[in-house]
TrEMBL record:
PANTHER family: P2Y PURINOCEPTOR 2, PURINOCEPTOR-RELATED G-PROTEIN COUPLED RECEPTOR. One of its GO terms (biological process) is adaptive immune response. Pfam families: 7tm_1 (PF00001). The chain crosses the membrane at residues 32-53, 65-87, 107-134, 146-166, 189-212, 242-261. This is P2Y purinoceptor 2. GO terms for cellular component: plasma membrane. GO terms for molecular function: A1 adenosine receptor binding; G protein-coupled UTP receptor activity. It is a multi-pass membrane protein. It is found in: Cell membrane. Keywords: Adaptive immunity, Cell membrane, Disulfide bond, G-protein coupled receptor, Immunity, Membrane, Receptor, Transducer, Transmembrane, Transmembrane helix. It comes from the Eukaryota. Residues 44-310 form the G-protein coupled receptors family 1 profile domain. It comes from Salarias fasciatus. InterPro entries: GPCR_Rhodpsn, GPCR_Rhodpsn_7TM.
Length: 343
């Protein structure tokens, strides 16, 4: 989920401390990648919402977390057409400053909302695998709703400063929509961004890794017999858990981790260059900026990865749809009843 512009123009020259380098590649990379994320993400998330709202009768805690995760992704995907236009027009923002703030805010709300809800889903599965008996009293749909409200409140509160930092600036040939902030506020933004990254990415990432390590150890233990039927149920549960582990780890390793690493490096080099130009060369700043911009589409791609978690590991979607189809085909049911009566 990414929509950043740290330099915000193809030629950066705010002061003697800043370097000048071309960013022409992003005017192709970002519109194309965002267009792909928009088409694929909108289709997958719309399908997931349809199944949850119209085809799922009983919402368990996992369904509640997945619904909130899907809402995060859908809100962000709907902002992408504006970013596609902005970058295709080479950083010329045609809309108002409040709209620029809203677009930037929705990106970060999606990014950290997705991370926190994936963390909730991981903790839920961890409790169910490692403490199956105790989990019956620990988790409920009501608790999941309260936790979801708390997650949204945390995300909105922590990302509210983005509405202050995000600004627009008119130049001779274009209107910039800052993703970070204006140059004079960059030092404050760096502190804010670092704190948010630790609280809303590093800590949840550590929690997810610990949970999955304990889950893998539990899944590798020889299971209790429980008869043939019990063995089949245990096998299906293990397969679902393994799928979830793979998908969530893929989201963190491919979407979130590269983005946060390259962003931290770029922000650090940019700050050190500003403090002491002799300490960091322009080529190092440029290299970190390029790496950072390449990972921005990867962060956006989590909007496409999250629905896959729902379809493959979150809920028995195919079973629900098959059951619904059987119930909605009276002809087939009557035909089977007639055949049984004749026999």
């Amino acid at each position: 989920m990414a929509s950043f512009d740290s330099n915000e123009s193809s030629q950066t020259n705010f002061s003697a401390f800043y370097c000048e380098f071309s960013e022409e590649f992003k005017y192709i990379l970002l519109p194309v990648s965002y267009a792909l994320v928009f088409v694929i993400g909108l289709a997958l998330n719309a399908t997931a919402l349809y199944v949850m709202v119209f085809r799922t009768k009983r919402w368990n805690p996992a369904t509640i977390y997945m619904f909130n995760l899907t809402m995060c992704d859908t809100l962000y995907v709907l902002t992408l057409p504006f970013l596609i236009y902005y970058y295709a027009d080479e950083n010329d923002w045609p809309f108002s400053e409040p709209f620029c703030k809203a677009i930037r805010f929705l990106f970060y709300a999606n990014l950290y909302g997705s991370i926190l809800f994936l963390c909730c889903i991981s903790l839920l599965r961890f409790i169910g695998i490692c403490y199956p008996v105790r989990s019956l009293g620990w988790v409920s749909a009501r608790q999941a709703k309260l936790i979801s409200v708390a997650v949204w409140a945390c995300v909105l509160l922590c990302q509210a400063p983005v509405l202050y930092f995000s600004r627009i600036r008119d130049t001779e040939s274009e209107r910039l929509c800052y993703d970070t902030t204006s140059p004079e506020l960059f030092d404050d933004f760096l502190v804010y961004s670092s704190v948010v990254s630790v609280i809303m990415f590093a800590l949840p990432f550590m929690v997810v890794m610990v949970c999955y390590g304990l889950m893998v150890r539990k899944l590798l233990e020889p299971g209790a017999g429980g008869g043939e039927r019990g063995g089949r149920i245990a096998s299906r549960s293990k397969q679902k858990s393994v799928k979830m582990i793979i998908i969530v780890l893929a989201a963190f390793m491919l979407c979130f981790l590269p983005f946060h690493l390259t962003r931290s490096l770029y922000y650090s080099f940019r700050y050190l260059r500003q403090v002491n130009p002799a300490q960091v060369s322009c080529s190092l700043v440029e290299g970190s900026s390029v790496a950072y911009k390449i990972t921005r589409p990867l962060a956006s791609a989590n909007s496409c990865v999250d629905p896959i978690l729902y379809f493959l590991a979150g809920q028995d979607v195919r079973s629900n749809l098959a059951r619904k189809n059987r119930l909605s085909s009276p002809k087939s049911k009557n035909r089977n009843q007639n055949l049984t009566t004749q026999l």
